[in-house]
Design goal:
Blueprint (H helix, E strand, L loop, with lengths): L3 H9 L8 E3 L19 H19 L4 E4 L3 H9 L3 E11 L6 H5 L4 H14 L5 E6 L5 H19 L6 H11 L3 E8 L2 E10 L3 E9 L6 H17 L3 E3 L13 E10 L3 H27 L12 H15 L1
Parallel strand pairs: 1-2, 7-8
Antiparallel strand pairs: 2-9, 3-8, 3-9, 4-5, 5-6, 6-7
Amino acid sequence: MFDHAWADAYTRAGGSYYPKLQASVPFTPVPGPRLLVKPGPDAEARQGVLAAGAVEVARRMDVSSLHVTFLTESEWNRLGGMGFLQRTGQQFHWTNGGYATFEDFLGTLASRKRKAIRKERETALSTGLSIERRTGAEITEADWSAFFRFYVDTGDRKWGRPYLNREFFSLLGQSMAEQCLLLLVKRDGRPIAGALNLIGGDCLYGRYWGCVEQHPCLHFEVCYYQAIDFAIERRLKRVEAGAQGEHKLARGYLPVTTYSTHWVPDAGFRRAIERYLVRERAAVAEACAELAELGPFRRGPLGGGAAEELAADADSARKDA
């Protein structure tokens, strides 16, 4: 949930956007519960107390805003009822339809899409590259060093400021290696690209990718198709590939709506954001519905009426706007 434009606008208006409070545990864009209370008949009331407490902390600290990102839809509605501004976004997820093999998955796609994916997978390794998959104790410090180089290269080219240091990856390997899936691409025995995924209870989370050599279709193979292979083998329910990139659609990753809420005490700034979010929610809902209709599957883009549900959401958001 990028808010760089909000920060820039508030600064130009004479305000100070930073520091702000951010509720984001885990520190990664993974949708899930953010108001963590003990389940029970009074769980909703406890969540309300927790949210009210967070607002009080923000008031006492005199920060510009409080943001709760990638929360569940029910939490989004609850905080919206408490006066938080509501925002939606979009990610792309692959869903496991109980496939036994990658070919089973391809069998659900339109013929043209199946051929395109097979061609991409063939092209990715056509120059003699090899891919090694490592988890747990198989991941060495040399592997982490190689991957860190890829991570920094991607950060330098895209973000401008990679925020994880080399020690982080060693600590990751020491504390949760069994939850790491590291894919290393080698040419003549030398690592030239890689991708890091985290293994959840029922989901594979694609996190970082990088390379020091450019090869056609390699990114698609390592980040998308290898992830699907692994999810099928481990019988994971889905692969979350994160935001951005409609190119994921043709490869079986379909749009899902993400949710965030924002407490903004400055009345003028709040009104400006609120007007913007009404239009943005409508645009996000419409984009999700349109992309779902363009999905690669031959028996309906999403199956089970999901595309129709997204279309209904888009219609509702347009009316709100």
